[in-house]
From TrEMBL:
Stated family: Belongs to the CpcE/RpcE/PecE family.
Species per Swiss-Prot/TrEMBL record: Calothrix parietina FACHB-288
Name of the protein this chain belongs to: HEAT repeat domain-containing protein
Transmembrane segments: none
Top-rank taxon: Bacteria
């Protein structure tokens, strides 16, 4: 297996054309080996969108082991690599990416990043959250998604926010049925006011899904795998939340990415347990 992985990595490093690089990264991503993570991460910085897409797909397939390296990439000044990293975090759904996705969905200047982050917020691995953090985390996600669904200038981003809200409505159906009803009510308003027929159609699809989906069905679909995160992971999330305070706006609108002090406090309390 090491020889196989090394040959895939060498193919990426030795690629002498754009097409060969795309193919090499695609093959490396298909291996789904944790040892491929550093090279896939590096591929996000290349000026090659095809290779970056393949790398993102591979990192999503690898999942949780790729998250620490993706979070490190967010601290770099290479915006292109950072935007691809956010898309990978959105696809993985790891709670360590929650704060990043909240900010990206509501404030990133690239519509492709906001779109991915909005969908990712709805598909977070909520079953990993400690019970005392789940409510506040889902509340923040719902506020952000409702803000994006109603206020974003780009219809493709609002469309993805509707998708995220549909998944979130399923996730809160058992514990917070009132929130599910609130989302359904907001769907009615969006359907009446949005000027995009694509968004209206996606809202209709979401409404039909929620009408058919019962709480019992949702319970059967919930993953029960335990969270691999440690108290140190939650501490890092808290530090990230407080680090955003220097970028606060004068007035916080609903869904503003810097409205997370309560969540930070709750995470801090949980990390001390």
């Amino acid at each position: 297996m090491p020889d196989y992985l090394n040959s895939l990595i060498r193919a990426v490093e030795d690629a002498d054309s754009s097409l060969r690089l795309q193919e090499a990264v695609k093959n490396l991503a298909a291996s789904r080996l944790e040892g491929a993570i550093p090279t896939l991460i590096a591929s996000l910085s290349y000026n090659n969108p095809g290779a970056a897409v393949a790398a993102v797909d591979g990192l999503i397939q690898i999942g949780e082991p790729a998250v620490p390296a993706l979070l490190e990439l967010l601290d770099l000044h290479n915006y292109t690599a950072r935007s691809w990293a956010i898309r990978a975090l959105a696809g993985i759904g790891d709670p360590r990416g929650l704060v990043t996705l909240l900010g990206a969905a509501t404030a990133d200047f690239a519509l492709s990043v906001r779109r991915a982050a909005a969908k990712g917020l709805g598909m977070m691995k909520w079953h990993w959250f400690p019970e005392d953090l789940l409510e506040i985390a889902q509340a923040e996600a719902m506020d952000a998604l409702l803000f994006v669904a109603k206020e974003d200038d780009e219809w493709v981003v609002r469309y993805s926010a509707v998708v995220g809200l549909q998944f979130l409505a399923d996730a809160v159906a058992t514990n917070y049925p009132d929130w599910r009803s609130q989302i359904q009510s907001q769907f009615e308003q969006i359907a009446a006011k949005d000027d995009s027929w694509a968004v209206k159609a996606r809202v209709l699809l979401a409404q039909q899904h929620l009408q058919k989906q019962t709480v019992i069905e949702q319970q059967h679909n919930v993953e029960d795998s335990p969270s691999p995160l440690s108290s140190m992971d939650w501490q890092k999330i808290m530090e990230g939340l407080y680090g955003r305070k220097g970028q606060e706006r004068q007035v916080f609108a609903e869904g503003d990415p810097r409205r997370y002090e309560k969540l930070a406090v709750a995470i801090a309390e949980n990390s001390d347990d």
